[in-house]
Every structure is written in structure tokens, then in C-alpha cells.
């Protein structure tokens, strides 16, 4: 059985220099994280950080295997009761999962936010870890015929000379 999603652990650490209409925001910033159209979660609101909020809020969510981007949308609560978008960042999944980034590795990343007009509007700082799909380790171990989990290869052995000729007689 093939897994249809992975588990994404994304910690929204902080943001820098957030503005609305070129004025620093005063309070109530939060982040909404989207892994697809129907799957999103939100951080708690930072009521005191102003244009340099700090959340340190870990969100654990499903990330479908077909996901290419994770979207971060920084917002703040407006005085009229609604939410105003401060800026968005689209994170390519290949930034934290791919050739040189195996699953389960914690990575710290920073992204430029763009406001609704497309202009630069601050930076958001995150840490990201992708967990193996549930059952992936045990199914690999069962397929290998051993009671151990199969790991990630991070290096290639290099032969330093020729093997002993006595092996080939």
C-alpha cells in the first residue's frame, strides 16, 4: 500500500519588518499555513510583537504526496474585526525535501514575504521537518525480510585499491 501523504512539522518561529500600507503593524499577527486547498492550520496570535512578532508555534499537519508548495500567509487582526493580509510566501517542497534533504531532517529557513500588490514586505522564519509516512518503515523492513528498519543512505563507500586477489581464485 502506497502512502498518500507525509506528516509536515512546521514551526513558525518569527517574522521581521511586517507592514501594512507601508506602516509597521502594531499587534495581533498570526500565520496560516496551507499544504493544499483543503488542508491548513493557523498559529496563535502574537499580541505584543508588533512588526517583529514571535510565535514559536509548531503545527503538525498532513502534506499530500502531490504537494509542490507550502504557502505561508501572514495576517493580522484588524481593528474592524476582520483580518488583513500582510504577506505571502510560497515554499517549494524541494527546499526541505529532496536529493540532499532526507526525511526527518530539521531545517531552518527564512522567506521573503510579498504583500497583496506583490511588493516585498518582511521576512518569515520557520523550521521544517517531514516525517516518513505512517507504516513506511515497517513495510520496508517486512519487504526486506528482516526485523529492522531500512535507513537513508547518506554516503557512498569508496574502494581504496583493489580487492584481495585471493577472493577471486
Automatic annotation (TrEMBL):
PROSITE patterns: C2
GO aspect biological process, one term: defense response
Gene3D superfamilies named in the record: C2 domain (2.60.40.150)
Domain C2 positions: 1-108
Entry-linked SUPFAM superfamilies: C2 domain (Calcium/lipid-binding domain, CaLB)
InterPro entries found in the cross-reference section: C2_dom, C2_domain_sf, C2_SRC2/BAP
Name the UniProt record assigns to this protein: BON ASSOCIATION PROTEIN 1-LIKE, BON association protein 2
Lineage: Eukaryota, Viridiplantae, Streptophyta, Embryophyta, Tracheophyta
Amino acid at each position: 500500500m502506497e502512502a498518500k501523504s507525509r506528516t509536515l512539522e512546521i514551526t513558525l518561529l518569527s517574522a521581521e519588518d511586517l507592514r501594512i500600507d507601508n506602516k509597521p503593524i502594531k499587534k495581533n499577527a498570526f500565520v496560516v499555513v496551507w499544504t493544499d486547498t483543503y488542508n491548513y492550520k493557523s498559529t496563535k496570535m502574537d499580541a505584543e510583537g508588533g512588526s517583529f512578532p514571535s510565535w514559536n508555534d509548531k503545527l503538525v499537519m498532513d502534506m499530500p504526496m502531490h504537494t509542490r508548495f507550502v504557502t505561508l500567509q501572514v495576517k493580522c487582526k484588524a481593528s474592524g474585526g476582520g483580518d488583513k493580509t500582510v504577506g505571502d510566501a510560497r515554499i517549494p517542497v524541494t527546499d526541505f525535501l529532496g536529493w540532499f534533504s532526507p526525511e526527518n531532517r530539521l531545517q531552518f529557513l527564512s522567506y521573503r514575504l510579498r504583500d497583496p500588490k506583490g511588493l516585498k514586505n518582511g521576512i518569515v522564519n520557520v523550521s521544517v521537518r517531514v516525517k516518513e509516512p505512517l507504516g513506511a518503515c515497517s513495510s520496508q523492513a517486512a519487504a526486506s525480510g528482516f526485523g529492522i528498519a531500512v535507513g537513508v543512505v547518506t554516503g557512498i563507500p569508496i574502494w581504496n585499491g583493489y580487492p584481495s586477489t585471493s577472493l577471486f581464485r
